[in-house]
Amino acid sequence: DGRVRIWFGLRTIFNNSDELILKTKKIADELNTGIHMHIAEIAAENDYVKANRGDSTVEHLHKLGALGPNLLAVHTVWLTDREIDLFRLYDVKVSHNPAAAMKVVLGFARIPEMLEKGLNVSIGTDGAPSNNRMDMMREMYLTSLIHKGRTLNPKAVPAEQVLEMATVHGAKCALLEKEIGSLEVGKKADLIVLNPNTLHSLPLHDPIANIVYTMSSENVESTMCNGQWLMKNREILVLDEAELIEKLKEKAAEIKKKAKIELPNRFPVVDII
Questions:
Q1: SS3 sequence of 178-219
Q2: Phi, psi of 199 (to 5 degrees)
Q3: The whole model's pTM is what?
Q4: Domains annotated on the chain, with CATH
Q5: At 75, phi and psi to the nearest 5?
């Protein structure tokens, strides 16, 4: 029913020849679909590309003609002022993944500067190996904090902007802004229902501030996708949660056995004299 969209994934510039990048861009434009690519993820990436192709990742993609509104640039930690301007010029979309960037030590993306220039920046989680909690509520909270700390500006990336990044901007990055991202006539019924009545999210003076700064996935009571309830009153309706949990345990045990994983002994037994 149109809920599954197929995009091209270029992974990183390390994995792609110029020919593959250009052909991918051409076909993506013809098929009116998107391209997902990790860009300027680590400082060493720009060093590598300069040494092998003569310029930084973004500058090289610009020279190839690969920048465009259907390119979703993930992480974008190591961008210069000029590269941010190039993204704005070509309407390149950005996916900010704060937890993963800190866990795997990428650095802090210049999100306030990008937002100031009018870039469309969304919030993502990255994959499970880079982020053990695939939790958008937590990502909003981290986004709201880390840029205040980096810039020493308490007004940087306010709660209203964070919520916009997670909703409206996310829809634009997915090339679906006419279908989802906000609650209005003509768009699909995609929504979540939050219950603020928990000790950690009260008192409720400013709903948007509470959503970003105090609420967690615990507060998500119901979710709807395209008019269908996926979870209602915290009961998942589209799968058997208990059965899934048992399958997860079984698969984890199989993987551990095959890989012969030995967990570190974090709590050694010691004699107290």
A1: CCCCCCCCCCCCCEEEECCCCHHHCCCCCHHHHHHHCCCHHH
A2: -60, -35
A3: 0.89
A4: 8-181 (3.20.20.140), 189-273 (2.30.40.10)
A5: 80, -65
pLDDT tens, N- to C-terminus, the chain (273 residues)? 778 899 999 999 999 999 999 999 999 999 999 999 999 999 999 999 999 999 999 999 999 999 999 999 999 999 999 999 999 999 999 999 999 999 999 999 999 999 999 999 999 999 888 999 999 999 999 999 999 999 999 999 999 999 999 999 999 999 999 999 999 999 999 999 999 999 999 999 999 999 999 999 999 999 999 999 999 999 999 999 999 999 999 999 999 888 876 666 665 555 554
Helices (H), 91-158: 98-103, 111-116, 136-151
Task: Decide if 57 contacts 13 (C-beta within 8 A).
Answer: yes
Residue with tokens 């998942």: 236
Q: Which helix (H) or strand (E) holds 39?
A: strand 35-39
Q: How far apart are CA 265 and CA 181, in angstroms?
A: 46
Tokens representing residue 255 in the block:
């993987």
Return d(Cα 273, Cα 270) in angstroms, integer: 9
The DSSP secondary structure of 57-105, one letter per residue, reads HHHHHHHHT---TTEEEEE--S--HHHHHHHHHTT-EEEE-HHHHHHTT
